[in-house]
Amino acid sequence: xxxxxxxxxxxxxxxxxxxxxxLACGLTHTFVTPLDLVKCRRQVDxxxxxxxxxxxxxxxxxxxxxxxxxxxxxxxxxxxxQGAAKYGFYEVFKKKYSDLxxxxxxxxYRTTLYLAASASAEILAxxxxxxxxxxxxxxxxxxxxxxxxxxxGFNKIKKQEGLSGFYKGLxxxxxxxxxxxxxxxxxxxxxxxxxxxxxxxxxxxYNKIEQLGVSFLGGYIAGVFCAIVSHPADxxxxxxxxxxxxxxxSTAVLSLxxxxxxxxxxxWRGLGTRVIMxxxxxxxxxxxxxxxxxxxxLPTTGAGGKEKK
Length: 309
What we know:
78% helix, disordered C terminus
């Protein structure tokens, strides 16, 4: 019996998109943990390593291969939760806002639609990510090992700082992730549209492999833009989760103090590493996400049309 196709915008469609998001974000962020580890440590202490290779070499000599993946547990959990909400709710909000605007208006102002839908989705996604991001940064940047396991680290923050310890970095996380995601989705959608227009044939005239190739290329281009827009906030998040507040000091006041201490050059420290990391990450995420979609009979993201079998 022929397998029934998933209906667009049905509950099953959104569940499939959320599942694609889990794989796209959870797996890729965990894979690049060694890059993230060196980046976070250099943001907190610029004199710790001369560069990526120096950092990896020193970590490997001191802690072995396992040390290179410090923080992989909270990374996998947090970004799996975030990916499910990010991709799932993006599709929900894109459809909702499109229906509210009407077909003609939605198409005319589609970039605005992509920006609004992705921002709405990321606000929710970061609430799920924030506790695990706090734990990840703490495990990666503490001079004395913070915890031997994800479970131990989670309970340690909970006991010492309560809920505020997990969410003190939420506002800076939004400042990093919301612009990042807006750029990620809007630039990806428009880049994919541009690629197909440049190729001279509609998307449906290409097979699945070719369409996935476009998804990968569009994802890498989008990732470079993402890294640039979100980098200052990323540096701030790394510092915030590694510095204790003074008595009576709010997160906003602490953030301003840290930004003054870092200065312009400090805020942009580690950008080169992050461009490589985020470019690769974003390309792989769109590739995995769209692979999940086409493997269930759904079209790849962007430029309209259905996949060719």
